[in-house]
Write a structure and sequence with these properties.
Blueprint (H helix, E strand, L loop, with lengths): L5 H5 L15 H7 L4 E3 L3 H9 L3 E2 L4 H7 L5 E2 L2 E2 L1 E3 L5 E16 H6 L14 H8 L5 E4 L5 H14 L1 H13 L1 E4 L2 H10 L4 E5 H10 L3 E4 L6 E9 L5 H11 L15 E2 L8 H4 L2 H12 L7 H20 L2 H16 L5 H12 L3 E3 L6 E3 L2 H7 L5 H20 L3
Parallel strand pairs: 7-8, 7-9
Antiparallel strand pairs: 1-11, 2-11, 3-4, 5-6, 6-9, 6-10, 6-11, 6-12, 13-14
Length: 404
Amino acid sequence: MFLKSEIAKKYGIKDVVFRPLPAAQWRALIQTGRVDVAWGGGPTLFDSLYKDGLLLPLEGPEVKAALAQIPKTIAGMPMTRTGPDGKVYWVAWAVSSFGITINTKVLKQLGLPEPKTWADLASFEYGKGVIKGFPITGLANLPASTSNTRIAEIILQAYGWEEGWRIITLTAANGRIFDGSERVRDAVIAGEIGAGWTIDFYGYTAQLQNPDTKYVIPPDTSVNGDPIAVVKNTKCRDAAEAFVAWVITEGQRVVFKRTINRMPVNPNAFDTPEGRQRPDLKTIYDYMLTLKTIDFNDTLALAVENVVMYYFQAAIYLNADVLQQTWSKLLRAYFDGKIDKATAEALAKRLGEPVTFIDPETGQSVKLTLEYAMKINDKLNDKIQEAWRKAAREKYLEVAGQIP
């Protein structure tokens, strides 16, 4: 599409070569001058390139006019990186978010409200579906899904380590754990569950396939702009800037293709023939303009990412049978009036809190705190994961024993 555009003809651009490389290899390629535009990857990567002086300011007439069409922020997050010199060094071409895809028909049939926050999926209210024999929620085993791992990290940052793990654990207790994020999405579409963790474009895909589905962005989530930029040492800066200008203006129509299905950054995209066919995305876009989400810390997320993934697998996924049986017993005791609300909430908190376990290296009893997670993140082994699995199972059974 770009090569057929007027701007490509104006700058004599005959071809575009895409070099799909891991982020770790970008710097070397930029330094050699064998690349003109950086595209793909999130704002953390682009900010790192910017700080290292590897991005050029976007200054050409076409790109400046294009930048004027892009909102400064969406959901409180920047859509451009502006330096102290007032110049723009990267601009978002699409907006990414993490949220909940729901099946409104399923929720209505079970008499459950639409979720507004991550915590709603872990609630006693959603437990009513469990009592009726229906798994309401869905999420993926974290080592099998980068997007669900990011959602877990968002929850842990939004609510804190202890409360975050309670929400994650009870969300799993309220439903099913799948072997991948696509299965979560497909289960919502098929009505096998009522609500599932998904990246945004999975939600948009669901909305296209089943009108009973809906993508919900909770305020306690993370939204960011996916950047594009012109890099240092380019040999055709004007043409590179022209390409960036096209991507964030006329090229925005591409995001509506069913094979891409992303959220455009430029509101004018919704005035195109393709954009007018996606009122579902326009509704979400307008909502995001007024939304204020959490300020996600990538450095902190990376410092505990291995622990988050493999603790979930060991403590929750591999113990899903005992966890869900205990939660079901707790729900029945509460709704049957055998225990009061305070007791039920205390037992639910105990069920979801990070384990205290015997460290196989030291033989000492330790609790999986945030500080401990950062300490062992790069030293994980099978022994630690087995200790987590065992401690979690014992904890679930202990809670079950306290329920009348």
